[in-house]
Fold these 2 entries.
Entry 1:
Amino acid sequence: MLRVEEACELLLHRAPPRRVERVPLEDALGLVLAEDVHAPEPLPAFARSGMDGYAVRSADTLGATREQPVVLRPVGVIPAGHPREAELAPGTAVAIMTGGAVPPGADAVIRLEEVRVTPEGVLVFRPVPPMENVAPVGEDVREGELILEAGHLIRPQEINLLAALGILEVPVFARPRVGILSTGDELVPAHQTPGPGQIRNSNSPGVAALVRAAGGVPIVLGVARDVTEVIAGMLREAAGCDLILTTGGVSVGRFDVVREALTILGAEQLFWRVSIKPGTPVCASVLEGRLVIGLSGNPAAAITDFDLLVRPLLDHLLGRRRLGLRAAEGVLDQPVLKTAGVTRYLRARAYNGPDGEIRLDTSMAQRAGVLSSMSHANAYAVVPAHAGPLPAGARVRALLLDDADVFVPPPRGDV
Ligand SMILES: Nc1nc2c(c(=O)[nH]1)N[C@H]1C(S)=C(S)[C@@H](COP(=O)(O)OP(=O)(O)OC[C@H]3O[C@@H](n4cnc5c(N)ncnc54)[C@H](O)[C@@H]3O)O[C@H]1N2
Ligand code: MOO
């Protein structure tokens, strides 16, 4: 059966081109720059005092000593935000606040704590070297400097830097728009009380949340009955999406008609069934150039399919460096008695053991039909197909969800 890595390859190979868009700075957090960004102006844009004190001409302070201080005549105050045009005359000092513009003529600032203000004037007890406590124009960023390269992730510190330079719109890789279509005659909207044999459609809000958390924009397309033509019609009309996710109807049952709907639409099937448990019957097709990924209907299986196959695709479209979940080595707390012909992705709680190693507690329910145990997991423990029973203490690959608050130790053998 197709391995996860092979399925990912096929999906990445047929991924839509990354869209680049300019977004307001306040919407750019977590996105990746699509182009280099250069500074349109220097930072700071004026020579700025780094301290509360007095701006002086350093030449005036030459020869000052504790016993023989230089006396400078005070000539007012420069608060931050209130620059002064007038040149500082020789023999004078002007009080200046942190962030204030150092006036023409002045070339240094002496801290308030180091001077004495007397009726005679401001006493300076040592020579103040040129540029002391002065941030010259462009000290932080030179005009025209390459500040952030294409591919750089925008975090809060980048938002601050861009705002400081007045860059209020940035070119980023756009959030993929992901259509979500749930299929199943048994589904009613989550706000309705299910009738006999019916269930609430939890996959639509659940998968929408997965998309949003992974950086995409979910577009909930609604629910389709298990009728080939109905599903085909809804897939055909799904406009404005970069890719489409369906849930349910991909197994072998009489009403599992998602693949049939794709076939009558003339879609090209990339794969059906991947070595993932839960979530084996996942399928992918290309419909009029657009990827349609059919996630398994069992909510826990849909989540696992998403984490393994859709997440790397969204990471790629968002221009991120790491595709998919963070991988590490973990040590099983419990034995795994049941292995399968497909790779099992066990729900696990990852935590650091006494020696800092990642331990994996897999004691929660693992059946595909159980959803609640997903809420106790912050990782997957990967049990390869045909691995045979594994004892407690066996080392396996762990895939860590974002909330897995564990220190990832370096691979064994490293210093
Ligand atoms: N004879 C076989 N039967 C099944 C096989 C098989 O190989 N042979 N595979 C099983 C496996 S494994 C899985 S996983 C499921 C997957 O089937 P589908 O992906 O086609 O999903 P459905 O049958 O439509 O639904 C499965 C399950 O999930 C519930 N569901 C569906 N949609 C939603 C939703 N939007 N919100 C909440 N719950 C949903 C649905 O009611 C079913 O209980 O097939 C096995 N069968
Ligand atoms: O895919 Mo089913 O959930 O593999 O058990």
Note: DSSP finds six helices and 25 strands in the chain.
Entry 2:
Amino acid sequence: MTARNAAGDGSTGGGSDPLRIAVTGAGGRMGREVIEAARARADVAVALAVNRTPTDPIAGVDVADAGHLADLLVDADPDVLVDFTGPESAAEYAETAAEAGVAVVTGTTGFDSGGTARLRAASEAVPLLKASNFARGVAALRRAVREAVAAVPGYDVELTETHHNGKRDAPSGTAKTLLDDVEGVREEVRGDPAGGDDRDRRVHGREGDAPREPNEIGVHARRAGDVTGEHEVLLAGNRETLALTHRAGDRGVFAAGALDAAAWLVDRDPDWYDFDDVLGDGVSE
Ligand SMILES: NC(=O)C1=CN([C@@H]2O[C@H](COP(=O)(O)OP(=O)(O)OC[C@H]3O[C@@H](n4cnc5c(N)ncnc54)[C@H](OP(=O)(O)O)[C@@H]3O)[C@@H](O)[C@H]2O)C=CC1
Ligand SMILES: O=C(O)C1=N[C@H](C(=O)O)C[C@H](O)C1
């Protein structure tokens, strides 16, 4: 990995060389967005773009065969690999990057425990940052949800996410992150992880004839049209409701966050990071 930043703080301003990124899944919705966003930034250069299947150049960037990633990383010498693919490939790409000493930013969702373990292992060799959502507004939503649940821990919680009809995984990675947040706060309020029958239980969808149990968290995934990504957390009780919602306008929101994360990650120590580490106490630009 070539250090591009004398400051060591991840910044690439001040006249230092642009951050060199490698993009996997270049032919995908997010891969294309990342390349276009990088091409519009002076502090980022696309050193390599690869895709599983043949793809025409994107924003003037040639796309190589992902099957040759290991050799291509040596030749291209990127600082960070930026991945938005599928769980089965993202883990493999992260391992390949780690072997090449290249840091990894992955936004891919839908990992099982095995895939997450492979990412964790890669983070022992290189800095690896994983986030289910790179929108700063979702980071703000997470903070608001944690505060709201702490204020009214006994209220019923129902989560609804809506995405385009091409999304494979359900519920979304962001939904799972928000559910972890809700359950973590409620366990903290209860004083210890609820090991008994009162522990939170995720109920995916709802049908049939049965009362809602107090410890349920309803989870609803909608797939329709070209919705970029919407997440609503509803809290209801005591004759009132509170709905906290984020709507992404376009995928540029995610690409901007991912590139900011890549610039922050470069030259960090090998470890496991998330987008909150990038944002620190504030989420604004
Ligand atoms: N963290 C965040 O902020 C965001 C995360 N995401 C996540 O990013 C991922 C990709 O989303 P999106 O770009 O819409 O998906 P697309 O289906 O549009 O693109 C997926 C890309 O990854 C490649 N790919 C998929 N599966 C494999 C595989 N098994 N092996 C090799 N390459 C593969 C595809 O290659 P090919 O062209 O050959 O099929 C394609 O280039 C999803 O997990 C999604 O949830 C999406 C938006 C924001
Ligand atoms: O697939 C998508 O499009 C998105 N996936 C991510 C997720 O699974 O949370 C993030 C965003 O909502 C868009």
Note: Residues 173-190 form the longest helix (18 residues).
